[in-house]
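seq:
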Amino acid sequence: MRKAVIPGSFDPVTLGHVDVIERAARLFDDVVVAVLANDAKRPLFSIEDRIDMVRASLADQANVSVTSFSGLLADFCTAQGADAVVKGLRSAVDAEVEMQMAHMNRHLSGVETILLSTSAGLSFVSSSLVKEIARMGGDISGLVTAYVQERLRPRDDRAV
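struct:
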């Protein structure tokens, strides 16, 4: 059984993330979406909320599970018995950064990294841009699921 880990902050999960995860789920028997618990990144959503949004966005994927992790990705992959890390690439800049991390993770644990290019229609989507557009009242449909869109809708009782 081949197992992959897809790490990220997913603050929030976008349709770009969903695309990469669904494609990885066709390539691997078991996919673990690993939501990074790193308060240094100052996430908008709690770890529990991010896990909830990822689960809701991928509810139809039977071989995908969602959990959180902190610390080194290489250690998490070893503990999970993962064969590979899967990362999505939007641009050449992403590739340069991800290659360095891939080499380090292989050095630390032997885990391989698979780099999947995002679908062309989603290559411009990022969590930070989605949050900014939502904060300014813009239309984020087509960038996130309806569930995530509702979670990002500005409310009188909280700031986005």
